[in-house]
Amino acid sequence: MQYEDFYRRSIESPEEFWAEQAQAIHWHVPPQEILDYSNPPFRKWFVGGQTNLCYNAVDRHLEERGDQLALVGWSTETDSVRELTFRELHREVNTFAAALCSLGVGKGDRVVIYMPHTVDAAIAMLACARIGAVHSVVFGGFAAHNLALRIDDAQPKVLVCADAGSRGGKVIPFKPLVDEALARAQHPPVHVLVVSRDLAEVSLQPGRDLVYAPLREIHADAEVPVEWLESNEPSYILYTSGTTGKPKGVQRDVGGYAVALALSMWSIYDVRAGQVMFSTSDIGWVVGHSYNVYGPLIAGATSILYEGLPTSPDPGIWWKICERYGVRTMFSSPTAVRVLKKQDPEWLRRHDLSKLQYLFLAGEPLDEPTADWITSALGKPVIDNYWQTETGWPVLTLMPGVELKQVKLGSPGLPSPGYRLRVIDETTGEDVGPGQKGVLAIQPPLPPGCLTTVWGNDDRFIASYFSHFREQLYSSLDWAIRDEDGYTFILGRTDDVINVAGHRLGTREIEESVSSHPAVAEAAVIGVHDEIKGQVPVVFATLRQADGDAAETACQMMRTVTEQLGAVARPSRVYVVGALPKTRSGKLLRRSLQALAEHRDPGDLSTLDDPNALEEVKRALERGADAGN
Ligand code: ATP
Ligand code: MG
Question: Which one of 142, 190, 215, 306 has the fewest CB atoms closer than 10 angstroms to its CB?
């Protein structure tokens, strides 16, 4: 099959195309109508159809692959491996579902899951799905403040947490954070259910808090019937990364999501029943939802959940896991690869990776030096994916399951089925031609799998995504260029633009240029106010070798940018730092750098990963630039 034919059918005959794809999942009641778009921009897929995510992910496979591995939880942090077959997973999910029911959780009730990246978290998610409860997973690395905000937005009946998480060998007790969050929250849950990993003592508030272990015993043989949901009822809420501001509560449906994931598993990731997928994401992000839990399980594949740093106990750990389980497709992020890039590529070559076919990367721009490094170290196709929490599955990628197209460095590739992409001029609102820069937009109706609304806030849904252009088009405001062959290049976010003496420069372009210097590990570029030019680029960079000559390298970075992009893009200052401020999902928090560089309050830092990175930046600013003035 040719990609072009496949994609064209999805655009020209969407109802026929999606009706066909819908057959990949189990429907308790088949859909009565494929698409209802009578109330734009809201749309409904598979109207009247009744299905269930847990049934499709677990029950459906019992007969044919009950004894096949469903989930593997590999933890470097606790030095443990937990393997569950589909049958064992079915057992655990039923037990957990029964425990939730005993706490009064039913269809439509929200359950906040605040847990590390473990099999238990996946069990909790699937148990919610089974009984029609709406889960909202909050990344286990978030602090009490972030947790409280999400609790108040979702208003859960129950909060499920672990006793502790662990990062780089450091145990982080969760329960005190939960207690603090509940003290702050306006709408605290009725119950807190603690799943203990024997990592930390927990103190319980009588009447409110319970430990899961005794409930697990009580409900050890429970059979909890599946709650069949109408295709458009909510399955979960998941908050965006908050790179640009207050996170948005993305609401996902049931049927459209299951169908889109089923399609993406074979066509994009080329993974089918019985094969193995390893995504290094965390369960707290959309990749964790779609490609650690629901996608692989719906496909009848084995999914690997890895808890730990990519470099511990040594930088070969991911590849060791690939070898052990015969991983076919791996999924990670450029940030994680950049961590490995600081290590010897020999670590990859020590393991038998003959079963591994592809590495997919998503979440942020994949710079060419990183892409080159990992491609040559791995010797397999490295495929960039562009998508968002909102879309739930890739918007742009290559689809080796349909036809393996040529990788073009710097581009995440071609549109996934059902995505009608447009590149729009931000001022005129007209489509721009090939090779011209514009804002990436999706012509509604959004395909199955994408968000149905912002939780509890339809107005914010319309205001955030559909009100940027004359026409009602969906956009999360990323710059893009489409070339003659239809490959789309993502140039960064529209708010990441610097205006130097009337020239509009994307921070991404300058970052790429700085990163092309072999000594640079990573760079962040911001525009800082300048009396004469309006704004000037300022660079913050980390070096691959901490003991490199900062001043000399900084001068070379300036020369590199000037040579590659012209004098207009020449950084006015370069600061070499030990770490860059990022969100917990690994995205550069340029707005915090910007604020510090302009002596402003950095504002809401609740999504910041490592406060030390910001301290480093502050110190660097006080100390003065390594190059420039
Ligand atoms: P918020 O919407 O709260 O500001 P966020 O946009 O970072 O946060 P996510 O949904 O995690 O939340 O990230 C989606 C964004 O990440 C995209 O809009 C895009 O800017 C960026 N992105 C994702 N994948 C890629 C990619 N392959 N190449 C370039 N950018 C990417
Ligand atoms: Mg966004």
Answer: 190
Q: Is the CB of 244 under 6 A from ligand 1?
A: yes
Q: Cis before residue 31, ω within 30 degrees of 0?
A: no
**pTM recorded for the entire structure:** 0.89
If you take atom 14 of ligand 1, which residue's CA is the nearest one?
388
Which residues lie closer than 8 Å to 343 by C-beta, 6 or more apart?
311, 315
Per-residue pLDDT reduced to its tens digit, 38-82: 999 999 999 999 999 999 999 999 999 999 999 999 999 999 999
Q: What is the pLDDT of residues 261-288, one digit of tens each?
A: 999 999 999 999 999 999 999 999 999 9
| 492 contacts 539 by C-beta, under 8 angstroms | no
Query: Ligand 2 centroid to 476 CA: how many Å?
Result: 6
Which domains are delineated in the chain?
3-308+385-479 (3.40.50.12780), 496-628 (3.30.300.30)
Torsion angle, CA of 618/583/467/412, rounded to 10 degrees? Answer: 120
Report helix, strand or coil for 608.
strand
Distance 467 CA to ligand 2 centre (A): 15
User: 240 CB less than 6 Å from ligand 1?
Assistant: yes
Closest ligand 1 atom number to CA of residue 246: 3
Cα 396 from Cα 391, distance rounded (Å): 11
